[in-house]
Amino acid sequence: MKKVSTSSLVVIYTDGACLGNPGPGGYAAVILTDGEHHELSGGFRLTTNNRMELLAAIKGLQWLKKPSKVTLYSDSQYLVKNYNEGSVARWKLKGWMRDRKNPAKNKDLWEEILRLASIHEVTFRWVEGHAGNSENERCDQLSVAMAKKKGLPVDEVFEKGENESPLQAGLFG
Known about the structure:
Layout: E1 9-18, E2 23-33, E3 36-47, H1 49-63, E4 69-74, H2 77-84, H3 87-93, H4 107-119, E5 121-126, H5 134-148, H6 156-159, H7 166-169
Parallel strand pairs: 1-4, 4-5
Antiparallel strand pairs: 1-2, 2-3
Helix pairs in contact: 1-4
């Protein structure tokens, strides 16, 4: 288990949105730490909802400057269930294959989530979307606003068919 100080307890809410799937997409995170409230968001001109859900979690965790104990809330069962039930770890062990014929999707993002989860002590929790949770609702507002924004950058990994590494694509820089 990672050693983290109790003064570095962090709560992160995340959400992703896509206008069409695929379509223009946005992600957002609300970070609550040391009595402070931080918001971040971004988006891409063509992507998928699942990519935006994963990227929201990544950006929230990347924001942290030191190893922390994190509870990350997401309304994405794709993120929470696949991580918590061990599917992601199994896909990695099988060379990023879900089964003999089907590769795991969003390998670039899952690899980054695993890397960040090795730095922080992260608990992923599902929260029902559009159910009145103020931080989840704020993430939804931010991610939808980003998806509607003009001039969004290219999600190079998605648009190139996920054949490029995230470092080459500049996604995590």
